[in-house]
UniProtKB/TrEMBL annotation:
Enzyme Commission code(s) on record: 2.7.7.65
Coiled coil spans: none
Domain of life from the UniProt record: Bacteria
Spans through the membrane: 6-26
Positions of the GGDEF domain: 75-214
UniProt keyword Transferase present: yes
Enzyme class: transferase
Leader sequence segment: none
CDD domains: GGDEF (cd01949)
Lineage: Bacteria, Pseudomonadati, Pseudomonadota, Gammaproteobacteria, Cellvibrionales
Keywords, alphabetical: Membrane, Nucleotidyltransferase, Transferase, Transmembrane, Transmembrane helix
Protein name as catalogued: GGDEF domain-containing protein
Length: 226
């Protein structure tokens, strides 16, 4: 065998031997880091930057999954749109830092109430969304559970927030759209109808919750219809 052939074989052997090492030491860590960065970017893009809650994009995805789950397995759910009452005066009197502090605190309270399989999001401004899934196969049982959660949310919001020595307070109006087994309903329709019920709650008097197309009395609240 010539010196050239021997050198060629040695080079080839070195490539064969070193390729797995290069892959595991160089290529794989780079690919993993790159994929982790992409995942982090995707995750951040789905969050509201202030409250770290789900943004409109992630809310829409989750509502779609809840709808599919309801229609496939017969498990009801509920979508709630919440708007804070008395929030604008806080911004006007105490500044936007105070308003941001209230939003962050309210966001944490809402998250503490719902289950891990549920989702709390921020649509923008002082408007939030709560999506409850797997509330049961019986509609009356699911409605009772959604009313119970709505009452807890309202009670959590009215608790005061301390900021720079000031005691700040807001309340909330909630519109609830029950997620039934209607195969023709869409995520956008659910959000729009819950939003309509929320405005009806504001008109009827604050704080309160209204269930879309239903006349249901929530604990310690007046009966209203949308």
């Amino acid at each position: 065998m010539s010196t050239f052939q021997a050198s060629t074989l040695n080079a080839f052997a070195l490539v064969v031997i070193s390729t797995p090492i290069i892959y595991f030491w160089v290529v794989k860590p780079y690919v993993s880091a790159y994929q982790n960065a992409l995942n982090q970017i995707e995750y951040i893009s789905c969050l509201d930057p202030l409250t770290k809650l789900a943004n409109r994009r992630l809310i829409s995805v989750h509502v779609g999954k809840t709808l599919a789950n309801a229609q496939r397995h017969g498990l009801h759910g509920a979508l709630m749109v919440m708007d804070l009452d008395g929030f604008k005066p806080i911004n006007d009197r105490h500044g936007h830092e105070a308003g941001d502090a209230v939003l962050v605190e309210i966001a944490q309270r809402l998250q503490a109430i719902v289950r891990t399989e549920d989702i709390v999001g921020r649509l923008g401004g002082d408007e939030f969304v709560v999506v409850l899934s797997n509330l049961g196969r019986q509609s009356d049982e699911a409605l009772a559970r959604s009313k119970f959660v709505a009452k807890r949310l309202l009670d959590a919001v009215v608790k005061t927030v301390e900021f720079n020595g000031e005691t700040l307070s807001v309340s909330a109006s909630i519109g609830i759209r029950f997620i039934d087994l209607d195969p023709n309903i869409t995520a956008d329709t659910l959000i729009n109808e819950a939003d309509a019920a929320m405005y009806q709650a504001k008109k009827a008097g604050k704080p309160r919750a209204v269930i879309f197309r239903e006349q249901i009395l929530l604990p310690e609240m007046h009966t209203t219809t949308s």
